[in-house]
Amino acid sequence: MSSIEPTDDVTTEYSEREAVAVFSSEAALHAAVDSLLQIGLEEKDMSVLGAHGAFSLKSLSELEEAGDVPRGAYVPADERAEGLAALAGSPALVAGLCAALVAGTGGAALIPAIAVTAGSTAAGGVVGLLLARVFGRKHAAFIERQIGDGGLLLWVHAPDTAKDTQIAEILAAEGGKDVHFHTVQRQWTLHALNPDPLLRI
């Protein structure tokens, strides 16, 4: 019986230059990002502490300099609000549409179908609001914990040194502390494709 030799994973190391700052409030962090966007940076250039596995035995200063700390993409406050609104409304929409299909029977069945539509939509809306509230509370707790540990970290991808002065001034003007630039080492791994899921290595 022949076997296929799996290809080894390929790991590439690279350097990334970035600015880092610590904020004492989420509002200040958002204001700094808004100002950075006005000088030509993009949201993809910003990253914050990741929600999963972010807290460790590392101090805040160690987290600032770590290239392997879990990070998350920056999400504007209005987009997060829209996401929570969609989360709240989606169950109601699905329930309403499903119940509306029942209403298509017409005739004598139409009156109870309307009641089913209204009831299911209301119930779906309650479920959506509960889900939105849970996610909203988790986010608030995560932010509160970071602030309690010293502040909210913001990293700004800054390969172009020509904008260093502008970036530093904006971060400091919006309340950023310990504003500085550094270069971190990162790794990117291309995992080997195993054509046979039952193949044991």
TrEMBL record:
Keyword Transmembrane helix on this protein?
Answer: yes
Where is the chain membrane-spanning? 84-103, 109-132
**Looking at the keywords, is Transmembrane present?**
yes
For this UniProt record, the keywords arranged alphabetically read as follows: Membrane, Transmembrane, Transmembrane helix
What domain of life does the native source organism fall in? Bacteria
The name this protein carries in UniProt is DUF1269 domain-containing protein
| Organism per entry | Ancylobacter aquaticus
List the top taxonomic levels of the source: Bacteria, Pseudomonadati, Pseudomonadota, Alphaproteobacteria, Hyphomicrobiales
